[in-house]
Specification:
The protein is of the alpha/beta class and 136 residues long. Helix 3 (101-111) crosses helix 4 (118-135). The chain has four helices and five strands. Helices cover 41% and strands 26% of the residues. It has one domain (8-135): YqgF/RNase H-like domain (Nucleotidyltransferase, domain 5, 2-Layer Sandwich). It is globular and about 40 Å long.
Length: 136
């Protein structure tokens, strides 16, 4: 992270249909689910609104890879998303390995024995991505 300590960091778990978003204060550093967005043309204005509303200083994007660390079709999709995001926002964007975060999120939600939606999995996966980034 850079020298600034105020504001928030957000993490994005980018999927082809949805994008899970988590946030954490740069001071308190506790990640929490924020929202799940539809991955369509509206995502750009919604992300800009979130960035402004939460005084976001850094955007962390989960980078998917295969189990052996190889790049996949989804890796390419996420890199293209980040390239477009970089054209639309003036904030640092960093990648964070997202290995198995969706599986971990689904297992945690299932263990709670309460109904959950795919949106819940995406937002919790974003929390795990952000926690990994903050711990690094």
């Amino acid at each position: 992270m850079n020298a600034q300590t105020s504001g928030e960091v957000i993490a994005l778990d980018v999927g082809s249909v949805r994008i899970g978003v988590a946030r954490a204060s740069r001071i308190v550093r506790l990640a929490e689910p924020l929202i799940t967005l539809r991955n369509d043309e509206s995502v750009w204005s919604e992300l800009n609104s979130l960035i402004a509303a939460h005084d976001v200083h850094t955007i962390v994007v989960g980078l998917p890879r295969g189990l052996d660390g190889q790049e996949t079709a989804q890796t390419t999709t996420v890199r293209q998303f980040v390239e477009e995001l970089g054209k639309r926002v003036d904030r640092p964007i960093v990648f964070q390995d997202e290995a198995l975060t969706s599986h971990k999120a689904e297992a945690e939600l299932a263990a709670r024995n309460k109904p959950f939606a795919k949106e819940d999995v995406d937002a919790l996966a974003a929390v795990y991505i952000l926690e990994d980034y903050l711990a690094a």
